[in-house]
Amino acid sequence: MLLPDRHLVADLLGRYRAWERLVLADPFDETTRGRFEDVAYTLCVLMGRRTAREAIWQAEAYLRRMRPVPVFPDGESPVGRSDGKASVGPGVRRD
Predict the structure, then answer these.
(1) What is the number of domains present in the chain?
(2) What is the pTM of this model?
(3) Residue 88: inside a domain, yes or no?
(4) Domain ranges, residue 14
(5) Is residue 17 part of a domain?
(6) Residue 75, phi-psi category: left (phi > 0), alpha (psi -120 to 50), beta (remainder)
(7) How do residues 7-46 score in pLDDT, each as one tens digit?
(8) 14 vs 16: CA distance, rounded Å
(9) Rounded to whole angstroms, how far apart are CA atoms 38 and 35?
(10) Is residue 77 part of a domain?
């Protein structure tokens, strides 16, 4: 299953909230409402949901599940080191 980019989801969720505030401030502005509905539709498609409310809930849950990549003080990553040698964590044997 393909998962959406978390940065895109976060960006769209922020845009949705911003347009939502503008629509609540002036509910009769058709341009603002149209842009709000466009962002809502995009979130529905991206999250695979039929309604904007479901898409928002799904997007928020998705972002809560995503964990940031850990930053290691010595510059190592979980995949490998900058010098090209394999990185081995504590308690892991190197055979």
Answers:
(1) 1
(2) 0.66
(3) no
(4) 6-65
(5) yes
(6) left
(7) 999 999 999 999 999 999 999 999 999 999 999 999 999 9
(8) 5
(9) 5
(10) no
